[in-house]
Amino acid sequence: MIALAPGENRPAPGDQLTVTVASSASVDVSALLVNSAGKVRSDADFVFFNQPTGPGVVYRHGNGGPDVVAVQTSALPADVDKVVVTASLDGRGPATFASVGALTTTIESGSTALTFPIAGLTTESGVVCVEIYRRSGAWKVRAIGQGYDDGLAGIASAFGVNLDDEPPVPAAQSVPVQPVAPPPTHSGHGAPGRPSQVAPPPAQQPQPSFSSQQGAPPVHSDLFDPSHAEVNGLGIQKQGGKMVKVGMNGEVMARAGSMVAYQGDLKFEALGSGGIGRAIRQHLTGEGVPLMKVTGRGDLFLANSAADVHIIDLDGTDGLTINGANVLAFDSTLRYDIGRVQGAAGYASNAGLFNCVFTGRGRIAITTHGTPVVLTVDQATYADPNAAVAWSSSLQTGIKRNDSFGLGRLMGRSTGEASTLAFSGRGFVIVQPSELPPGGLIGGTGGGQQAGTGGGIFG
Predict the structure, then answer these.
(1) Which H or E run contains 153?
(2) 165 and 278 Cβ atoms separated by less than 8 Å
């Protein structure tokens, strides 16, 4: 086994190379296929946990051991100048490499192995370990060891990966939004002091009568009452209390797996978390929305475990902060990102207290466990972290310990640490009558890899 010093290069020990990064902390290993300009040719050249294959490169999860990047140099495209292998902390352990012990990269082919122990990292959460590069028609290996404070996202961005999630959709392709009255943000279930979105009543339809082909009596049922008929119109609309209908003539974003029925010519495309940048953030935070993009013309029906459905329209002047577990569908004109809840940094781990933030103009369908109350925040307002579903993004948030005013015993069952979310400013908070997943704010109930893995900082 040959040990490499920083900056040292050696001939690649073979055509088929296996690269591993061993560490005392859990790390994600990834690879970037880079051209002579030092950039990826496209986002497809970024090989990582959410995109495990590229031309000549394959990522394999370690399943308890180190992650592996396999490189076959003879299969690399002619315009790929090098393969850069990186490691980044995955959010389940230390925030930086300062407290991580040994970090060793090993490049193997057959019985030959090169190793590169990386030391001296401090504030960094990501590192370029080695590069496999082309020189005069042959392939070589160079020890790098360059750290990045902003982790995998910073490394990917430095090599030209587009971390901006989907580009804006032209207006002609977006699903029309029903006209709404001010104020800036309002809900279809009637927030206090705000006009409700009132859907037009369904058109009266004659009750169907199904005659028998063999002389049996026709079928009659209260199911054929007009109240059960599908609603009319384009865009996202409530279909009863636990389902939405999307009149499709373009595209809409929906929670993966939420389709219960559709009619017409629709195409479904799985998007994971909805973009490379969001996939990285979702992996680190456990928060996000596993998405599918639906396009075409027809009628789409969505639901999520018979949860109550509500419609909210955003007009672009304020955003909506919401747990990813409560998102059912939204217009593609809206943008969403994953961010830490303000004021909670001192209480949260690397993988706790993150939410989705929606901005722009469009309609979003959310779910709650039971009929919620919408609180107008015009004075100090507090809510159980597992019951607060969503709120105006313009509100200021924080954590309040309840022991000081005697609520510890009352709140302890649901929060574990007798704490509540505090809201100030002007806006609204949607609170559901349930402190249990799905749909709680804190507790890993989002759509990320840590979904459903209990507790967060409050339990």
Answers:
(1) helix 151-158
(2) yes
- Rounded Cα gap, residues 292 and 418, in angstroms: 37
Of 167, 177, 233, whose CA–CA distance to 362 is shortest? 177
Side chain identity at 252, as an amino acid letter? V
Contact 366, 326 (CB under 8 A): yes
pLDDT in tens, 73-127: 999 999 999 999 998 887 667 788 888 877 899 999 999 999 999 988 888 888 9
CA dist 103 and 89 (Å) reads: 11
Q: How many CA atoms lie within 13 A of 296 on its CB side?
A: 13
Query: pLDDT band for position 288 (50/70/90)?
Result: low
Is cis: bond before 94, omega within 30 of 0?
no
| CA atoms of 125 and 160, how far apart (whole Å) | 19
Enumerate residues 6+ apart whose C-beta is below 8 A from 81. 34, 35, 36, 133, 134
Contact 363, 233 (CB under 8 A): no
Contact 52, 116 (CB under 8 A): no
Residue 66 predicted with pLDDT over 50: yes
